[in-house]
Amino acid sequence: MKNKTKKISKASILFYVLAVLFLLATLLFAKLTHDYISASAENSGTITLETTISIYLSNCGSYLAYSFIFYGIGMILSKFSFMTHTLADCMVEEVEEKESENETDTEDDYFSIDAKDKTEEPAETKD
Length: 127
Known about the structure:
Transmembrane segments: 12-33, 53-77
Region (Disordered): 96-127
Keywords: Membrane, Transmembrane, Transmembrane helix
Number of helices: 2
Protein backbone atom coordinates (compact mmCIF):
# COMPACT_ATOMS: atom_id res chain seq x y z
CA MET A 1 0.00 0.00 0.00
CA LYS A 2 1.31 3.44 -0.91
CA ASN A 3 2.04 6.10 1.67
CA LYS A 4 -0.82 8.64 1.36
CA THR A 5 0.65 11.94 2.52
CA LYS A 6 -0.72 15.32 1.55
CA LYS A 7 1.84 17.16 -0.55
CA ILE A 8 1.80 20.95 -0.26
CA SER A 9 3.15 22.90 -3.20
CA LYS A 10 5.87 25.50 -2.81
CA ALA A 11 3.58 28.20 -4.19
CA SER A 12 0.94 27.57 -1.51
CA ILE A 13 3.62 27.66 1.21
CA LEU A 14 4.78 31.01 -0.19
CA PHE A 15 1.25 32.42 0.04
CA TYR A 16 0.86 31.09 3.59
CA VAL A 17 4.09 32.83 4.59
CA LEU A 18 2.91 36.07 2.95
CA ALA A 19 -0.39 35.78 4.83
CA VAL A 20 1.43 35.46 8.16
CA LEU A 21 3.71 38.39 7.33
CA PHE A 22 0.76 40.62 6.44
CA LEU A 23 -1.03 39.52 9.60
CA LEU A 24 2.00 40.54 11.63
CA ALA A 25 2.05 43.87 9.78
CA THR A 26 -1.63 44.28 10.66
CA LEU A 27 -0.85 43.77 14.34
CA LEU A 28 2.07 46.21 14.18
CA PHE A 29 0.01 48.91 12.50
CA ALA A 30 -2.86 48.30 14.90
CA LYS A 31 -0.51 48.98 17.80
CA LEU A 32 0.86 52.12 16.10
CA THR A 33 -2.68 53.29 15.33
CA HIS A 34 -3.72 52.72 18.94
CA ASP A 35 -0.77 54.82 20.11
CA TYR A 36 -1.67 57.55 17.62
CA ILE A 37 -5.32 57.61 18.69
CA SER A 38 -4.32 57.68 22.39
CA ALA A 39 -1.99 60.61 21.80
CA SER A 40 -4.59 62.40 19.69
CA ALA A 41 -7.24 61.88 22.37
CA GLU A 42 -4.92 63.31 25.04
CA ASN A 43 -4.20 66.41 22.95
CA SER A 44 -7.72 67.15 21.72
CA GLY A 45 -9.63 65.80 24.68
CA THR A 46 -12.22 63.73 22.79
CA ILE A 47 -12.31 61.60 19.69
CA THR A 48 -15.42 60.08 18.14
CA LEU A 49 -16.01 56.39 17.53
CA GLU A 50 -16.52 57.08 13.83
CA THR A 51 -13.10 58.71 13.57
CA THR A 52 -11.47 55.88 15.50
CA ILE A 53 -12.95 53.21 13.24
CA SER A 54 -12.03 55.22 10.16
CA ILE A 55 -8.40 55.56 11.29
CA TYR A 56 -8.12 51.85 12.14
CA LEU A 57 -9.59 50.78 8.80
CA SER A 58 -7.41 53.13 6.79
CA ASN A 59 -4.22 52.11 8.62
CA CYS A 60 -4.80 48.37 9.18
CA GLY A 61 -7.66 47.22 6.96
CA SER A 62 -5.69 46.74 3.76
CA TYR A 63 -3.04 44.61 5.48
CA LEU A 64 -5.70 42.43 7.06
CA ALA A 65 -7.48 42.06 3.72
CA TYR A 66 -4.23 41.10 1.96
CA SER A 67 -3.55 38.57 4.68
CA PHE A 68 -6.91 36.87 4.10
CA ILE A 69 -6.48 37.02 0.32
CA PHE A 70 -3.03 35.42 0.47
CA TYR A 71 -4.31 32.73 2.82
CA GLY A 72 -7.21 32.01 0.44
CA ILE A 73 -4.91 31.78 -2.56
CA GLY A 74 -2.66 29.40 -0.61
CA MET A 75 -5.66 27.22 0.24
CA ILE A 76 -6.82 27.13 -3.37
CA LEU A 77 -3.35 26.23 -4.64
CA SER A 78 -3.06 23.56 -1.96
CA LYS A 79 -6.39 22.02 -3.02
CA PHE A 80 -5.41 22.08 -6.70
CA SER A 81 -2.02 20.58 -5.88
CA PHE A 82 -3.66 17.82 -3.81
CA MET A 83 -6.18 17.14 -6.57
CA THR A 84 -3.40 17.00 -9.17
CA HIS A 85 -1.35 14.55 -7.09
CA THR A 86 -4.43 12.44 -6.39
CA LEU A 87 -5.35 12.39 -10.08
CA ALA A 88 -1.79 11.43 -11.01
CA ASP A 89 -1.83 8.60 -8.44
CA CYS A 90 -5.17 7.35 -9.79
CA MET A 91 -3.85 7.42 -13.35
CA VAL A 92 -0.73 5.49 -12.34
CA GLU A 93 -2.85 2.87 -10.55
CA GLU A 94 -5.16 2.60 -13.58
CA VAL A 95 -2.22 2.13 -15.96
CA GLU A 96 -0.70 -0.52 -13.68
CA GLU A 97 -4.08 -2.28 -13.48
CA LYS A 98 -4.47 -2.26 -17.26
CA GLU A 99 -0.92 -3.54 -17.73
CA SER A 100 -1.58 -6.39 -15.32
CA GLU A 101 -4.86 -7.16 -17.14
CA ASN A 102 -3.02 -7.16 -20.47
CA GLU A 103 -0.40 -9.54 -19.12
CA THR A 104 -3.01 -11.98 -17.83
CA ASP A 105 -5.04 -11.64 -21.06
CA THR A 106 -1.93 -12.36 -23.10
CA GLU A 107 -1.16 -15.45 -21.04
CA ASP A 108 -4.76 -16.64 -21.32
CA ASP A 109 -4.79 -16.05 -25.07
CA TYR A 110 -1.52 -17.92 -25.45
CA PHE A 111 -2.78 -20.94 -23.57
CA SER A 112 -6.17 -20.88 -25.27
CA ILE A 113 -4.56 -20.81 -28.72
CA ASP A 114 -2.46 -23.83 -27.81
CA ALA A 115 -5.54 -25.64 -26.59
CA LYS A 116 -7.43 -24.84 -29.79
CA ASP A 117 -4.56 -25.98 -31.99
CA LYS A 118 -4.33 -29.30 -30.20
CA THR A 119 -8.05 -29.99 -30.17
CA GLU A 120 -8.89 -28.83 -33.63
CA GLU A 121 -8.28 -31.23 -36.42
CA PRO A 122 -7.19 -29.83 -39.71
CA ALA A 123 -10.00 -29.50 -42.18
CA GLU A 124 -9.95 -32.15 -44.86
CA THR A 125 -9.61 -30.90 -48.32
CA LYS A 126 -11.71 -32.36 -51.04
CA ASP A 127 -9.92 -33.06 -54.29
